[in-house]
């Protein structure tokens, strides 16, 4: 794991992706800060949960930071895992590594844990950087509730990227060509981000709320996006369809952190289950794979 982590940190692949995330994060932060300032200037009152709006606020020119994270974060997991096994085998180094007193499961476990550690450090640094710049630009410190929500959002993002990392490692075990593994991973990413909405709209037909919502939640990206909105927007009090009887007489208010987490708990469990399934399949296939030349 230490060796793989050092390779990730010193490689140009991760540097390029981190720079891409930094540029989008700074751009979204600047747009959100300008939007918040315009609201404060027009109403002469500080909006509620102003620090969270740095991550959820956007404009017609630039989407919020959470949108960019949902769209670009999977690329980091794919980039760190698409050649984890097939790259080693094509370079003829996998058989040499396993010729040493190293267990086979240590190889795939170390690659997954090193990628997960790289992702964790990257997103913790990104959240701290965006939060620090937002604090300088606004001068309004976050509350304890906002800090807990941001911590939960960071954990959820790491789980989401871990799924794409596990999926990329699975394709690196299934395919012997690194280009084919990368293409398969990106194809799955594009399918759920671009084409899944179209398929659901056609399949749902006259029932976009019931069947359509159930089908949309089969997408990992939709699970992550819905959970992110619930966490960072405390005014969201329910998920799914709301009847007129439920709206009439309801009191206005916001959810506490624990209630928001309970609301998105099935989403987090679903992402963890998908990650575990992908890694378990890749683990079984790798343990049974013939790696000798």
TrEMBL record:
Pfam families: ABC2_membrane_2. It comes from the Bacteria. GO terms for molecular function: ABC-type transporter activity. Keywords: Membrane, Transmembrane, Transmembrane helix. The chain crosses the membrane at residues 12-32, 39-55, 67-86, 112-138, 150-175, 182-204, 264-286. One of its GO terms (cellular component) is plasma membrane. This is ABC-type transport permease protein. The lineage of its organism: Bacteria, Bacillati, Bacillota, Clostridia, Eubacteriales.
